[in-house]
Design goal:
Length: about 210
């Protein structure tokens, strides 16, 4: 089984970004969505990205951001990868000279494979839990049996993952990567060192 990558999302402090990197996470996520308790501004994001060591991917999370807003952020913050968590179409996600991943919120009865196919240029598809009116970060697990085994693209599993359940999630879903935020926090936007390390260790052990 290929090595599963890990992303620690909702980073708001330099020390938490360095903690994630030192623990062995492959990527950190910065939330550019004002309604999120984990949102960062451009100044915070630029400082965090500048502090990252080599080979740790910086991911910017956006929810229905305008092209103007996103372009302005990219002029200041050198993000490696974009993550779209709203109602964006494939056309909305393209044209920024950055690879992107598209987040889809999974609910019963949905053809997940068909939805993945709507974003043929995506570097990967992130599958999260569907909660009405909430674009992500719910801390709730969805039914992993809904994830197609032949999605045709790299799958990033999110939604309620913790150090305790991520091993089982990986064994069942066999994703390319896993994404965690609330499951490794001491409080909203503040990471717990022990949980971050335990999460990455559990991913590697799986």
């Amino acid at each position: 089984m290929p090595v599963v990558r890990s992303k620690i999302c909702g980073i708001t402090r330099i020390e938490d970004a360095l903690l994630a990197a030192e623990a062995g996470a492959d990527a950190i996520g910065l939330v550019f969505y004002g309604k999120s308790p984990r949102a960062v501004d451009v100044r915070q994001a630029r400082a965090i990205v500048a502090a990252l060591p080599p080979f740790v991917t910086s991911v910017g999370l956006f929810v229905n951001a305008s092209r103007c807003e996103l372009a302005e952020i990219l002029e200041v913050v050198p993000l490696d990868l974009l993550q779209f968590h709203g109602d964006e179409t494939a056309a909305d996600c393209a044209g920024y000279h950055r690879p992107y991943i598209k987040a889809l919120r999974v609910r019963p009865g949905e053809d997940v494979k068909a939805r993945c196919a709507e974003f043929p240029q995506a570097a990967g598809i992130l599958l999260d839990t569907f909660v009405p009116g909430v674009p992500g970060g719910t801390g709730e697990v969805f039914d992993w049996s809904l994830v197609p085994q032949d999605s045709g693209c790299p799958i990033i599993l999110a939604g309620g993952l913790t150090p305790e359940n991520v091993g089982a999630a990986i064994r069942q879903v066999r994703p390319w990567a896993v994404d965690v935020s609330g499951g490794v926090e001491a409080s909203k936007g503040i990471k717990d060192a022990g949980k971050v390390r335990a999460f990455v260790e559990a991913v590697r052990a799986s």
